[in-house]
């Protein structure tokens, strides 16, 4: 969001500068200075770490379990979409890390959970959720994080939400 705002600001400044009557060299120098300044601002912008993103995914993983196992299909669909969004952010912000490079290994499991949700099939959802959880643990093994063992939750992470 910050990056989009900075980019929009840069484009706006570019067009405003283009309307000035300065010589081409003056305009080029000013625009280059503004681009350089915006690049410096981007370097300072906040980027969530993989741990933060994975913790967010874990929360939605747990909420997905309670939504799907209770047949709350719209909520389950929403939680599944938030998990996918978290993985996309890992790929966006941390593309060089093994976690980002191995995100694709979760896709078949996510697809099977999504199918069970759309079918509103609780038995299938439970099986596919187990497959997804196992896929998470396989990824943790592959990325040298075997100490992060994910399981089917017993208690909701937030007890003020209806599942």
Give an overview in words:
- With 163 residues, the protein is mainly α.
- The protein folds into 2 domains: 2-44; 50-142, Four Helix Bundle (Hemerythrin (Met), subunit A), CATH 1.20.120.
- It has helices spanning 2-18, 24-44, 50-69, 73-93, 98-101, 107-119, 122-142.
- The two termini are 31 Å apart.
How are the SSEs placed, and which strands pair?
Blueprint: H1 2-18, H2 24-44, H3 50-69, H4 73-93, H5 98-101, H6 107-119, H7 122-142
Compact summary:
With 163 residues, the protein is an all-alpha fold.
Features:
0% strand, 7 helices, mainly alpha, 72% helix
Looking at CATH, the homologous superfamily of the largest domain is Oxygen-evolving enhancer protein 3 (PsbQ), four-helix up-down bundle
Please, how many domains?
A: 2
Major β-sheet, in short?
Answer: none
What is the element string, with H for helices and E for strands?
A: HHHHHHH
Beta-strand segment tally: 0
3D shape: elongated
**What is the tally of helical segments?**
7
Uncertain spans? none
The name of the CATH architecture of the largest domain is Up-down Bundle
| Gyration radius over CA | 22 Å
Q: End-to-end span in angstroms?
A: 31 Å
Helix content: over 70%
CATH class of the largest domain: Mainly Alpha
Strand content: under 5%
Average pLDDT number: 89
Structural class: mainly alpha
Q: What is the third-level CATH name, the topology of the largest domain?
A: Four Helix Bundle (Hemerythrin (Met), subunit A)
């Amino acid at each position: 969001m910050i990056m989009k705002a900075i980019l929009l600001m840069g484009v706006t400044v570019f067009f405003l500068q283009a309307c000035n009557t300065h010589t081409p060299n003056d305009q080029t120098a000013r625009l280059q200075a503004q681009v350089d300044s915006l690049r410096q601002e981007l370097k300072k912008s906040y980027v969530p770490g993989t741990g933060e993103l994975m913790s967010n995914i874990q929360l939605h993983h747990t909420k997905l379990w309670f939504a799907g196992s209770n047949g709350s299909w719209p909520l389950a669909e929403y939680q599944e979409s938030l998990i996918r969004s978290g993985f996309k952010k890992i790929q966006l912000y941390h593309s060089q890390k093994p976690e980002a490079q191995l995100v694709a290994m979760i896709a078949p499991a996510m697809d099977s959970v999504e199918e069970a949700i759309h079918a509103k099939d609780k038995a299938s959802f439970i099986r596919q959720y187990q497959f997804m959880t196992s896929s998470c643990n396989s990824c943790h093994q592959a990325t040298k994080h075997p100490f992060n063992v994910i399981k089917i939750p017993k208690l909701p992470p937030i007890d003020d939400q209806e599942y």
